[in-house]
Amino acid sequence: MNPLRRFLRVPEARAGVVILAALLAMALSASLFFPGDPQAIAGPALLPPFKDWSLPLGTDRLGRDVLAELFHGARTSLAVGIAAAAAALVIGAIIGTLAGFAGGLIDELLMRTTDAFQTVPSFLLALAFVSVVGPSLGVVVAAIALGAWTGPARVARAEVLSIRERDFVAGARVTGMHPLEIAFREILPNALPPVLALSSVIVAAAILTEAALSFLGLGDPNRVTWGGMIAEGRAVLRTAPFLSIIPGIALVLTVLGVYLAGEGVVETTAVRRSLS
Amino acid sequence: MSDFRISRRTMLASSAMLLASTAMPGIGWAQTPKKGGRLVVAADSEPRNLNPAIVASNGVFFISSKIVETLAEASFDGKDGLEPRLALSWQSAPDGLSVTFKLREGVKWHDGKPFTSADVAFSALQIWKPLQNLGRSVFKDLEAVDTPDDLTAVFKFAKPTPFQLIRNALPALSSVVPKHVYETGKIEDNPANNAPVGTGPFKFAEYKAGQYYRLQKNTDYWGKDEPYLDEIIYQVLPDRTSAASALEAEEIHLAAFSAVPLADLDRISKVPGLKVITKGYEGLTYQLVVEINHRRKELADLKVRQAIAHAIDKDFVVKTIFLGYAATATGPVPKNDPQFYTADVPTYAFDVAKANALLDEAGYIRGANGKRFSLKLLPAPYFNETKQFGDYLRQALAAIGIDAELVNNDSPAHIKAVYTDHAFDLAVGPPVFRGDPAISTTILVQSGIPDGVPFSNQGGYKNEALDALIAKASETLDSAARTELYKEFQKKVVEDLPLINVAEWSFISVARDTVGNIANNPRWAVSNWADTYLES
User: Fold this and answer.
1) Which of B108, B191, B332, B482 has its CA 20 to 30 A from that of B400?
2) pLDDT at residue B11 greater than cutoff 50
3) Quick one: residue B456, left, alpha or beta (phi over 0 = left, psi -120 to 50 = alpha)?
4) Taking residues A255-270, what's their average pLDDT?
């Protein structure tokens, strides 16, 4: 059976895929359905949801369209989540492979650096980084990646340690391949699957971290983010709770979707392993 | 409904006040204050330095004005808007070179020592003039304070100084601290800055960081039968959303300085046992101002500044951002100022088409993407409203083809960026009008102010005519002539737009029904609360 169909037979995976697809559709269609600046003032302030069908989810304190903000916020959340996870995976995989393959002093050096990063709570690291450099989307991505690469690095190193003793590596050595070539062309691709399995966790964590940073006012103020929407809604929590609840639900669904899809991947690979 | 309730209460309160001031004492159908009780108040910040003589700011006054008193307090119906405190009378010499204060007799410091003119002389010369944020400019020409006897202090000025300015400065700038406590050692490091000693109705008792400040009744207070309260607790509630729930849960009696968010007021005014009070802040008007960096070539062009003024819908700002708890501004002096305000200034009506035309005229044509030029916009982080206005202004500028990029900073970073590094094009600031333009308003447009002075002209604006006008007003002794000069000042500022005044707002108090004598002077939240009481 092909892996995709096997994957789709796992119920969690189906749910996850549906949610993520919806989210992706939202992010991609944001400019189509809501062209122009989502922060533009579209109507009277604090319009409750489902009152006016031209503004189905109502408006916020300044009269901005909540639905438009939600769509454009999906874009920011996904972009930050995926970019931060990609950056963390690339950095982690490279450092882990180098450490595992080289061993000795380089291994020590890289792993102690990893330890150092791991001892600092990643959210605190991101908070400090953003408040020093100043909030913008790139900085937020870098700040999240900064605290997230250590997990992939450790997993990659462990895999590399076991792979580098295999026969095909010895074979590559005998043919006179450059050690770096062996590390990155022979070993890394084989060490990658368990590292990639971490990606769903990292994406989910990155989306939450971005939301938390925006909530604290450290997101990019020129973009709509769900965390920022929740923070703005907080001041009117008692009178207009929907302003915090709507982006909150979006956030929960996204993280749930990413998690379920990740779970599906794990299930699928577990089934495959037990089959083989 | 809520409006009706508020106005009915205000009516009742003001009629009660009227009765209290005119009716004979002892006839008790206007409520007689009860003695005793502990008033619990929400505090949203924890100032480290509690010495109001050094740090003349509302955050400090809120707590320390109950402990340390000034020479006079603002008043709704007193002569020149003043009511005596430590001074009983003040008189200026015709040449404007001296002001004589007659002091109250029988006043004692909290440590039992008598209060004398030496304390006033010491406070004025050693603290207000050299150290105080506002006193530095108002008392810059103060040369000496003579003390012919214990109850007379004569301020001597090197240059003629307008009596009107000194009078207007008394409520905020004249906190008197004890000479015997401060005369040894460095004043800035004196432990009494954190545990103030004063003559006020309440003594400083304790401070637990992150929890509360506790003030205790001063049984030796000079006011007859005052204070009524036994204790005031300032409960530290840094989270703005928690003050409303604390009031509803009857954990606190009073949340001043708009600690309850504006959006919650409508709901909370309907809660039985709570009242929303909009009075008592008339002397503390904040102004919502767009600060402009005139070093930017585009912004140095008057047409561009006029276009920005036309692009701002002030009514929208008042209605949506301040939910009606504000007024639109016409110029650098707020409408509610009884002495200086003039409506006779140019106006900039909300008119996007005109704004666009002005920008075209100035030569900034829209590019292919519809944008004329880009700007950096720094909203001050101190108030929700300044941040929201930043969001609004970005949209208003987008409508006229100016692409504004918002830059959010925390308070220290914002102050550094705007007032020291000048790393801004537009900024949103909340300066305070303190009853006289010379105290903290003229420095917003005056040139030659050193870098790093917060809430001053750091936009590189220079207008010799305006500078000359400010200088002339600062040495004009006659109140009427001086007032005229400041009216001229308002006109010139609005004409040339060194900055754009958008709205002016004050604060709202929410209190339990049991708190009496609230908002009975224009600076009530930062006055001494000697007559505040609690019904049981």
Assistant:
1) B332
2) no
3) beta
4) 83
Q: Quick one: closest CA in B to A62, which residue?
A: B320
Which pair of structure tokens corresponds to residue A59?
């408006």
Nearest CA in chain B to A136: B407
Percent of chain B with pLDDT over 70: 94
Q: ipTM > 0.90? A: no
Enter the DSSP assignment of B108: B
| Chain A residues touching B390 at Cβ < 8 A | 221
Which residue does chain B place closest to A221, by CA atoms? B406
Give dist(CA A68, CA A49) in Å, integer.
Answer: 13
Name the phi and psi angles at B310, rounded to 5.
Answer: -70, -25
- C-alpha–C-alpha distance, residues B421 and A117, integer Å: 33
Distance CA B342, CA B19 (A): 33
Separation of alpha carbons A187 and B136, rounded Å: 71
Residue type, B472: K
Locate B424 and state its tokens.
Answer: 């801004």
pLDDT of A89 higher than 90:
yes
Q: What is the mean pLDDT of chain B?
A: 88
Structure tokens at B172: 């905020």
- Condensed to tens digits (0 to 9), the pLDDT of residues B59-106 reads 889 999 999 999 999 988 888 889 999 999 999 998 889 999 999 998
Whether the per-residue pLDDT at A179 is higher than 90: the answer is no
Are residues B449 and B458 in contact, defined by beta-carbon separation less than 8 angstroms?
yes
A63: distance to nearest CA of chain B, Å?
8
CATH architecture of A3-275: Orthogonal Bundle (1.10)
Q: How many CB atoms lie within 10 A of CB A34?
A: 18
| Residue B196 near residue B51 (C-beta atoms within 8 A) | yes
Q: Is B379 exposed, middle or buried (0-12, 13-18, 19+ CB in 10 A)?
A: buried
Angle between helices A66-102 and A11-33 (to 10 degrees): 120
Segment B415-447, tens digit of pLDDT = 889 988 999 999 999 998 988 898 889 989 998
How confident is the model at residue A272, as a pLDDT?
Answer: 60
**CA gap A120, A114 in Å, rounded:** 10
Gap between the Cα atoms of B491 and B346, Å rounded = 7
Classify A61 in phi/psi space as left (phi over 0), alpha (psi -120 to 50) or beta. Answer: alpha
Residue range B277-289, pLDDT digits in tens: 988 888 889 999 9
Mean pLDDT of chain A: 88
**Mean local confidence (pLDDT), A120-124:** 90
**Global pTM value:** 0.82
pLDDT for B26 beyond 70? no
- Backbone phi, then psi, for B499, in 5-degree steps? -150, 165
Choosing among A59, A223, A232, A238, which should be mutated to test the B contact, i.e. which has the most B CBs within 10 A? A238
* B402 min Cα distance to partner chain A (Å): 13
What pLDDT does residue A5 have? 82
Contact A156, A91 (CB under 8 A): no
| E runs forming strands in B293-400 | 327-328, 373-379
Rounded average pLDDT over A245-274: 84
**Residue B109: which residues within 8 A CB-CB, separation 6 or more?**
B115, B119, B178, B180, B181, B197, B198, B199
Please report how the helices A242-275 and A199-215 are oriented relative to each other, as an axis angle in degrees rounded to 10. Answer: 170
Structure tokens at B249: 């849960």
Do residues B329 and B504 lie in contact, with contact meaning Cβ atoms separated by under 8 Å? yes
Q: Is the peptide bond before B227 cis (omega within 30 degrees of 0)?
A: yes
- Burial degree of A234 (CB within 10 A; 0-12, 13-18, 19+): middle
- Name the residue ranges covered by the structural domains of chain A: 3-275
Contact A203, A258 (CB under 8 A): yes
